[in-house]
Write a structure and sequence with these properties.
alpha+beta, single chain, cell shape, 4-stranded antiparallel beta sheet, D_ala_D_ala, 314 residues, Rossmann fold, ATP-binding, 6-stranded antiparallel beta sheet, D-amino Acid Aminotransferase, Chain A, domain 1, 33% helix, cytoplasm, Dna Ligase, domain 1
């Protein structure tokens, strides 16, 4: 694997999802080393951009989650440093990290996503129950991993839920709660080559797929492929592909859905740097297609590229 050169696995970072990123990065690093890749861990919390510029990496695998890793900032820096990287470019990464902007794009494309409201202050709560029917959920507009997430049944719960989400973000997303089955679909590739992997159903204890159940608990059950009619599976996979390409994603990603009681799929968000831990969903879907964890890591690494073409200077 020497033709891939010196590879940096960027992990850790400073977001609320640091702990998960440390696990993802360690998993990817170990898998690549087992395949003979010259891979090196690089924690963006303790090492800065000048360290990255001097590290001599020929390409990097981004195993960071959340802000300053998944949101386009790092991707822009890597473009400036001319270091090929995995996953989506600066614009798609920033767009996907912003759940509200993502939903606006999907609505423009005619894709199904639940009604929502954007909250920027406590005053915005006054009219909220006229815009959204109970129950609805509230979460930071730019965080993942159910950080700062609440489900609201009554108007008395709104203020506490808003304050919890606002601890993590200036912008808070309120969104209609969809009762039903939780599904996710990994997507690999770019453009016409982008393809959806098998649909995964997530069944958490009491329907509570929170941070603990997502990353540490063994009580959460995963069904891959999900037990769905073939036609519905194909429809959900096609929605995932359209949602991914609609936001301009590249390389790899994962699209989250709710399937309501009428078997109508609803798009929630797209992750441009999904988890790669032992509990993670992209490796699970790949395995269902006969792709090992090591092969998956290598395939993603091989797709590393620069997304912005330098304009020839006159």
């Amino acid at each position: 694997m020497n033709h891939l050169g010196k590879v940096g696995v960027l992990y850790g970072g400073v977001s609320a999802e640091r702990e998960v990123s440390l696990m993802s990065g360690a998993g990817v690093h170990d898998a690549l080393r087992r395949l003979g890749v010259d891979a090196h861990l690089f924690d963006t919390q303790s090492q800065n951009l000048s360290d990255l510029a001097q590290a001599g990496f020929d390409r990097v695998f981004i195993a960071l989650h959340g802000r300053f890793g998944e949101d386009g900032t790092l991707q822009g820096a890597l473009e400036l440093l001319q270091i090929p990287y995995t996953g989506s470019g600066p614009m798609a990464s920033a767009l996907a990290m912003d759940k509200v902007m993502t939903k606006r794009v999907w609505l423009q494309l005619g894709l199904p996503t639940p009604e929502f409201a954007l909250l920027q202050s406590e005053q915005d709560l006054r009219q909220l129950d006229q815009v959204l029917a109970f129950p609805f959920i509230m979460k930071p507009a730019h965080e993942g991993s159910t950080v700062g997430f609440s489900r609201i049944e009554t108007s008395e719960q709104m203020l506490d839920a808003y304050r919890l989400a606002a601890r993590f973000d200036r912008f808070v997303l309120a969104e209609r709660f969809i009762k039903g089955r939780e599904l996710t679909v990994p997507v690999l590739g770019s453009g016409e080559q982008a393809r959806a992997l098998p649909v995964i159903e997530i069944v958490a204890p009491d329907g509570n797929y929170d941070f603990e159940n997502k990353y540490y608990s063994d009580a959460t059950q995963y069904f891959c492929p999900a037990d769905l009619p073939a036609e519905l599976t194909m429809q959900i996979q096609e929605y995932a592909r359209q949602a991914y390409l609609g936001v301009n994603c590249e390389g790899w990603g994962r699209v989250d859905f709710m399937l309501d009681e009428n078997n109508q799929p609803w798009l929630l968000e797209v992750n441009t740097s999904p988890g790669m831990t032992s509990h993670s969903l992209v490796p699970m879907a790949a395995k269902a297609e006969g792709i090992s964890y090591e092969q998956l890591c290598l395939s993603i690494l091989k797709s590393a590229s620069l997304k912005l073409q330098a304009v020839a200077r006159k």
